[in-house]
Prior knowledge:
Chain A is an all-alpha fold. Chain A folds into 2 domains: 3-89, RNA polymerase sigma factor, region 2, helix turn helix motif (Rna Polymerase Sigma Factor, Chain: A), CATH 1.10.1740; 104-193, Winged helix-like DNA-binding domain superfamily/Winged helix DNA-binding domain (Arc Repressor Mutant, subunit A, Orthogonal Bundle), CATH 1.10.10. Chain A has helices at residues 3-27, 29-39, 43-59, 70-84, 104-110, 119-122, 128-137, 140-151, 156-163, 167-193. Chain B is mainly α. Chain B has 4 helices and no strands. Chain B has helices at 4-17, 22-34, 36-56, 62-70. In chain B, helix 1 (4-17) crosses helix 2. The longest helix of chain B has 21 residues, at 36-56. Chain B is elongated and about 70 Å long. The A-B interface holds A 15, 18-19, 22, 26, 29-30, 33-34, 37-38, 43, 47, 50-51, 54-55, 58-59, 101-103, 105-106, 109-110, 114, 116, 119-120, 122-124, 126, 128, 131-132, 135, 150-151, 156, 175, 178, 181-182 and B 9, 12-13, 19, 36-37, 40-41, 43-45, 47-49, 51-53, 55-61, 64-65, 67-69, 71-73, 75.
Amino acid sequence: MGAEPEEAQRLAVEARDRVRFEEDALALADQVYRVARHLAGSREDAEELVQETYARAFRSWRSFQPGTNLRAWLLRILTNLNIDRGRRQQRAPQMQPLEANDYFLYDRLAGNGDGVSDEERVVERLSQDDIVTALSAVPHDFRDVLVLVDLGDFSYQDAAQILDIPVGTVMSRLHRGRRILKRELAEATLEEAR
Amino acid sequence: MMDPCLHCEEMMQPYLDRTLTDEEMAEAEEHLAECEHCRRRYRFEESLRVYVRQAAAEQMPAELRQKLAALRIPLE
Lengths: 194, 76
């Protein structure tokens, strides 16, 4: 008889912790989706991926260490699921040389000479569609890092943990990913001008 | 000595990432204060980051939120 109240109490504590975990995880769903949207190829894929992530997270909530970064933990599950979905079979990372100059997008948009007075407005020559399309054209390995750091606000260290790669690799992929994104954006503006 | 604008270009992304040392940060700021060519590009690169982030931000569909809530494991 003596063990029963203790067991009941243990179960009650566990239920409380689980409910709290689920609520905390659901509160992050917007942020998780925003990142997933650009890690996955399409809106539909992103929705599926987020659902699978939450289903898995709710099942394995005990493996989350309270006090650590829950958003990074969820994204770790999500990126693993995304890799499991076989997207590795898609394009291999491109290794074609990139422009040596980091400002080619600016030069392209601002035109010749430094005649534009308001640099903040130069970016507005890009449409939202240009940006979404250009992001999706960045090969996965680079895009994962770009999306986590530049859209998801994860630190280099968090991104390294989520993707299970060294911090140095995060930095080099980020550098290259940003360049590729700018090149894609530059190409989009060229096509529109045609 | 390296061309200061080329050096500034190399420091631009780490500058925006706030990963430069204090000394490098001061060096970049000093150059940006005196060089309009680089300052324009700095302002562009900074705006581009914000703009990309805003353009890429997509609201989660309301039905998805409901589907996720439905995945919760019921209390016994």
